[in-house]
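Handout, section 3.2

Students often ask what a structure token actually looks like in practice. Rather than define it abstractly, here is a full record for Translin-associated protein X. The first block is the sequence as you would receive it.
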Amino acid sequence: MMSFKSFQLELDTRHDKYERLVKLSRDITIESKRTIFLLHRFTSAPNGEEILNESEVKLDAVRRKIKQVAQELIGEDMYQFHRAISPGLQEYVEAVSFQYFIKTRSLISVEEINKQLIFTTEDREETSNTTSNSHDKQPHTWSLKVTPVDYLLGVADLTGELMRLCIGSVGNGDIDTPFELSQFLRQIYDGFTFIGNTGPYEVSKKLYTLKQSLAKVENACYTLKVRGSEIPKHMLADVFSTKTELIDQEEGLS
């Protein structure tokens, strides 16, 4: 009976930790989505720098949530709880890479993302504890590494946001961004095709959605190139939205 009591306690503790990680992952997903919605206003905002600064504040709040995840996983095997935290990490990768693309017009690497996920007691949340325990000079460090699969899935979701950014920029009269996005998405698609069926099942599932986003952006570039001079700028977004609906209908029939 004593052995089974200890087994029960261990299983209950693990289950409670799993549930806490699921709730933290849900919070990370929600805040990351809000950051993405904010960044979509970049093309239409009069002052884009304010949008970027506000998005950085929101991402800092997301990182504080990820720090709590890292603290929960101290002394644990991360892969035992990976299913609980994976959706939140994917959404965070999507938000960070979207902000990075708007700033630099390039793709952030998984190494750069992981550098931002190293936490110490010098952070704002821990300042009170460090002053009260000033005799203990050893800084505590927590880190959480984004796995390659989570990174790939986050980048695949990024392509959908870039497609929306393309249509939104055209509606604001920006003609150059769609061609830039088309080249960028083509490079990402080429990279995913190299993985093919050898990668995880989730990556191959995302490949179809990625191809859809690329087709919509290329269709927008084609319309701009062929009929851009005929259509007034304020009507371009309506033309693209109807064309993308037709593409969706054709793909649904096929």
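Discussion prompt for tutorial groups: The longest helix spans residues 2-39. How would you have guessed this from the sequence alone?
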